Amino acid sequence: MTNASASIASRDETEILSWTVHLAAADKTKLVVTILVILAASASAWVIIGPVGSVAVVLALTGSVAEFVFPVKYRITTTKVVCSTIFKTTEIEWSRVRNCFLDESGIKLSTVCSRSKLEAFRGMYLRFNGNREQVIEAVKLARNQCP
Q1: Using the 8-state DSSP alphabet, how is residue 73 labeled?
Q2: Which domain holds residue 38?
Q3: pLDDT (tens digit per residue) in 34-82
Q4: DSSP secondary structure, 92-144, as one string
Q5: Is 112 part of a structural domain of the chain?
Q6: Where does a domain end: 67, 98, 127?
């Protein structure tokens, strides 16, 4: 994509909805348990492997629970959905979304046509934060605007 076409694409993109979900803020008990487990694993690694192993364990465990511990920011636009955490940003274009699966906690935007074993590893999950109806309406609006 050239710079000219990139600027045209960004002009056509309009934000429909954005929100933040912070699961740890809603459940302090699980946060404390998570931190204690990471500290215990880090201390064990320090004794068994040494300081480098301890740091590696902290990084690996923190990365694996990042969506719980740190806030997750979602942004729905007319062209894509963006999910940002402290360690990474993921986006999916609406043209790649083949199906949406709704449950009590959020909406799974899937890049496969039907539920399968692969579906769990494809797409993006949008968590609600007291905004269930707003998210559902934003997804409907964005999918209708998709070519």
Answers
A1: E
A2: 25-67
A3: 999 999 999 999 999 999 999 999 999 999 999 999 999 999 999 999 9
A4: EEGGG--EEEE-SSEEEEESSSS--TTGGGSSEEEE-SS-HHHHHHHHHHHHH
A5: yes
A6: 67
